[in-house]
Design goal:
The complex is a heterotrimer.
Chain A (H helix, E strand, L loop, with lengths): L1 H9 L1 H22 L7 H18 L4 H23 L4 H21 L9 E2 L7 H20 L1 H11 L1 H6 L4 H27 L1 E2 L6 H14 L5 H16 L7 H15 L11 H6 L9
Helix pairs in contact in A: 2-6, 2-9, 2-10, 2-11, 3-4, 3-5, 3-9, 4-9, 6-9, 7-9, 10-11
Chain B lengths: L2 E10 L2 E11 L4 E5 L6 H8 L7 E6 L2 E2 L5 H7 L1 E3 L12 H8 L8 H5 L7 H13 L15 H13 L5 E5 L7 H16 L3 E5 L3 H7 L2 E6 L2 E6 L1 H6 L1 H12 L1
Helix pairs in contact in B: 3-6, 5-6
Chain C lengths: L1 H28 L6 H17 L4 H30 L3 H23 L15 E4 L2 E4 H23 L1 H11 L1 H6 L4 H27 L8 H14 L4 H18 L8 H15 L14
Antiparallel strand pairs in C: 1-2
Helix pairs in contact in C: 1-5, 1-8, 1-9, 1-10, 2-3, 2-4, 2-8, 3-4, 3-8, 5-6, 5-8, 6-8, 9-10, 9-11, 10-11
Classes of the chains: A mainly alpha, B alpha/beta, C mainly alpha.
Chain lengths: 290, 250, 291
């Protein structure tokens, strides 16, 4: 029992990061599920991470409230952003959201309160593992149920054919915007939790590399259902920890898996675990983002 | 009039694809729209169904000005369509396609869904299955739409359009790719639907089907309406013979 | 003032070289190749590698160009060709290229670490130009000239040669190109060779100019290249040239009214605004909003 405890303690950081990565993977799953590739979630995470950390550090706001405000702030930024960028499609949408992410990073670097390039240090380490995993469980459950609802069906229709979806009476841009804002809220929640888990924040944590990483989780895991992104997060968080020798080669491993999955398993690893019939019924993944 | 257009115009660059079209479609009939390739038929229905925005002119649906209404709003108001070349949700099941078609007539079930294990919308499922019955696809409800044969895909697309309970249904070349038996089936389905109060605008290359099925026919050429009347009048019109039938024969 | 203009021309030339390769692949194949910045970096480090073995700088430039060109062809075979055969959407290719970028960048780090490197002392030619009272870096002039020559060469290649005609046909309509007898796979291989070769040259030249190549040096250029391409119109070669100099001069001018931390915000703000106001770019024709 003690050994188990030790193990748990030794890996508690990894376990926490895993849960946060799971939330992030789910945040981008939403837009991928309706066929849109967006790369803004790292920035939403950053917005919430900085704002919630500043609230607890400088304004003595209670942790749960700071978490909530941070996530809402991310959602609030996503609303006008989504309303404008969803005029764009495909690669243009990806570039626009990426540019937004860079703007946020540069802005963080320019505001004195964020500690600029030095980062923000001394954030109260309030986040407990159960906070992370409770959030993850709730978000996973909600998304799994929403996927089955009329909203989820509308998202699927948009992914399959936007023009046909609109002619079935689906307000395409409104549904895309909904997915985008919900994604931002979840990324924001992950950001707040992560800030109070890690003690310090650096602007570079929320740049291009993070945006790509989040996308990789979801795409490699697969988009057909909410388990795919979680699987992706699990694979890329835990495997490098288990195989210590992989640490150095982590990016190579990650890059190779990404290429292999896109080429040979375009709907993600999760399709390996699905029954043949459901796999047939739910073909969706990177292969459907266009 | 259920649908009226006045001076409807759409330009692409220098080309005027639809040029000052006036149409009035009375309720409870099949209204045919014919013309040679590139006459502007598809552009016209894209304007009517809100996929494209007109450069000039107006569209009225059931008395209300809908010129600037987006496609999803028109579906809500009671206008449904199929596409030339079929646009199904190929990765979704046959049943799900029809359920998406019912989108505007369904209440959002998100809150109900959040309760564990609860499945919602039994009534909508039943309605969707009934529609599949009607077009003879009930047995394939669980198949992927993309796996259906072409003729079946066409019928599924019609079922999906009907699922929104439209008052006006626009069919864009529904008989293309159908065999003669399926074509006859389509013909009798249209008759049934019109008897039930639906209005249909039919765009079709198969002149015989149009002449058989339609109460009135409008003929387009180079974006303009060159004739309108009963099938008999259209067949007798020299302009039409020259522009359309002549072109088709020769 | 003159010094700033000189600098803006230099930076714009690097932007242009970088973005040309990026744009070429996009215009022919509709792929946003996110491994391009990694290839840029590979170029700088290939030159470092051979120069440490005593190869002179001009030859190192040529070697790096060829190595990167071949790497580009390999990249296509591994990461894009299988997707093309399956008819996967272009964004799959973009995601696949991210994987390759991760691998290449890490490989460089395994050999050279994450820190700034330097070319062997005295191996990079240097000199100073006296223009009136100003002293300008002579190496940069050489770089500008090389970059301009390559831009002219590429434009000539695309406009005037049989290969260029094939590439344009392919960009227009791959199926028609095949029917016209274009060896599509060969033309695509040529596209990647040229694109990656240009990327590699850009990397070497930038590496020489700063004399501090590092494993992530491509990343800022990737983000700038998005701006360049979008401003010029995605897939437009003349557009990329115009966009590159517009951006470099704009950035230089922005320093007059923006604090230097916000210098990058100019590029991304510009990118953002052009995307929303004029998504076809200033010279582009391809519509981003095809129905």
């Amino acid at each position: 029992m003690d050994e188990l405890n030790d193990l748990f303690f030794a890996y508690s950081t990894t376990i926490g990061v895993l849960g946060i990565n799971g939330l992030l993977a789910l945040s981008v799953w939403l837009t991928l599920y309706c066929g849109q590739l967006t790369l803004g979630n790292a920035a939403f995470m950053g917005i919430a991470a900085y704002s919630s950390a500043l609230l607890t550090m400088r304004a003595d706001v209670p942790f749960p409230l700071a978490l909530l405000i941070g996530a809402l702030l991310a959602g609030l930024v996503a609303l006008p952003l989504g309303a404008t960028v969803f005029r764009l499609r495909g690669v243009y949408l990806a570039i626009a959201t990426l540019a937004f992410g860079e703007v946020i990073r540069v802005v963080i670097l320019a505001i004195p309160a964020t500690g600029k390039g030095q980062g923000l240090v001394g954030i109260p380490p309030t986040t407990e593992l159960w906070h992370i995993y409770l959030s993850l469980a709730v978000v996973t459950y909600l998304l799994a149920r929403v996927r089955l609802s009329t909203i989820g069906r509308a998202w699927s229709a948009i992914r399959e054919d936007e023009v046909a979806a609109a002619s079935q009476g689906i307000a395409v841009r409104r549904y895309k915007l909904l997915a985008f804002v919900l994604g931002a809220l979840i990324a924001g929640l992950a950001g707040g939790l992560s800030a109070h888990f890690n003690f310090a924040l650096q602007p570079d944590e929320f740049g291009f590399a993070r945006a790509v990483q989040i996308l990789v989780f979801a795409v490699v895991g697969g988009v057909p259902n909410v388990l795919g992104p979680l699987l992706g997060a699990l694979l890329f968080t835990v495997l490098p920890e288990i195989l210590r020798s992989l640490q150095e080669y982590r990016d190579i491993f990650q890059g190779a898996v990404l290429v292999l999955v896109i080429v040979y398993l375009p709907r993600g690893l999760v399709t390996l675990f699905q029954l043949r019939r459901t796999r047939r019924l739910q073909r969706v993944g990177a292969a459907d983002v266009a | 009039m259920l649908l009226e257009t006045a001076g409807l115009t759409k330009r692409f660059g220098g080309v005027t694809a639809v040029d000052g079209i006036d149409l009035s479609v009375a309720p409870g009939q099949v209204f045919g729209l014919i013309g040679p390739n590139g006459a502007g038929k598809t552009t016209l229905i894209n304007l009517l169904s809100g996929q494209l925005r007109a450069d000039a002119g107006a569209v009225r649906f059931d008395g209300a000005d809908v010129t600037a209404s987006p496609a999803h709003r028109l579906t809500y108001l009671g206008l449904a369509r199929t596409f030339q070349g079929v646009r199904l949700f190929k990765g979704l099941s046959v049943l799900e396609n029809v359920l998406v078609g019912r989108h505007v007539r369904m209440r959002s079930d998100v809150l109900a869904r959040l309760v564990p294990f609860r499945a919602a919308g039994a009534g909508d499922r039943a309605a969707a299955l009934a529609l599949l019955d009607r077009v003879g696809l009930r047995a394939r409800a669980g198949a992927l739409a993309g796996e259906l044969a072409y003729g079946d895909q066409r019928r599924l697309e019609i079922a999906r359009a009907l699922a929104s309970e439209p008052r006006l249904l626009i069919l864009d070349e529904p008989a293309a790719g159908m065999n003669p038996t399926e074509s006859v089936g389509l013909r009798s389905l249209m008759t049934e639907l019109v008897a039930g109060g639906l209005t249909i605008i039919l765009i079709e290359h198969d002149v015989r089907l149009v002449m058989d099925a339609c109460a009135r026919v409008a003929v387009l050429n180079f974006g303009r309406k060159i004739a309108e009347g009963t099938p008999a009048e259209i067949q007798a019109d020299p302009l039409v013979r020259e522009a359309y039938l002549g072109a088709a024969d020769g | 003032m003159l010094e700033q203009i000189y600098n803006a021309v230099f930076v714009g030339s690097i932007y242009a070289l970088f973005a040309l390769g990026f744009t070429l692949v996009f215009s022919v194949l509709d792929i946003l190749n996110l491994a391009h910045p990694a290839i840029f970096t590979v170029g700088a480090f290939t030159a470092l590698f051979v120069m440490q073995a005593g190869v002179p700088a001009p030859l190192a430039l040529v070697i790096a160009a060829v190595v990167c060109g071949l790497l580009g062809v390999l990249l296509d075979r591994v990461a894009f060709a299988p997707l093309r055969r399956r008819g996967a959407p272009p964004l799959s290719a973009m995601i696949s290229s991210i994987g390759v970028a991760l691998i290449l960048t890490r490989l460089i780090q395994l050999r050279y670490g994450p820190d700034l490197q330097a070319y062997p002392a005295g191996s990079v030619p240097s000199g100073v130009l006296d223009v009136g009272s100003l002293q300008l870096d002579g190496l940069r002039l050489v770089i500008i000239v090389v970059a301009l020559a390559l831009m002219v060469g590429l434009t000539f290649l695309v406009r005037r040669t049989p290969l260029g005609r094939q590439l344009r046909a392919l960009a227009e309509d791959p199926r028609a190109a095949r029917l016209l007898g274009v060896d599509v796979e060969r033309a695509i291989a040529a596209t990647f060779f040229i694109s990656a070769g240009l990327g590699g040259v850009a990397g070497v030249l930038y590496g020489f100019a700063t004399n501090s190549p590092y494993s992530q040096m491509g990343l800022p250029f990737e983000l700038k290249a998005f701006t360049v391409m979008v401003v010029g119109g995605m897939g437009s070669i003349p557009g990329a040239l115009v966009g590159a100099y517009l951006l470099s001069f704009g950035e230089t001018a922005s320093l007059a009214f923006l604090p230097s931390e916000l210098r990058d915000a100019f590029a991304f703000g510009l990118l953002f605004i052009v995307l929303l106001v004029r998504p076809n770019g200033l010279l582009g024709q391809k519509s981003p909003d095809r129905v």
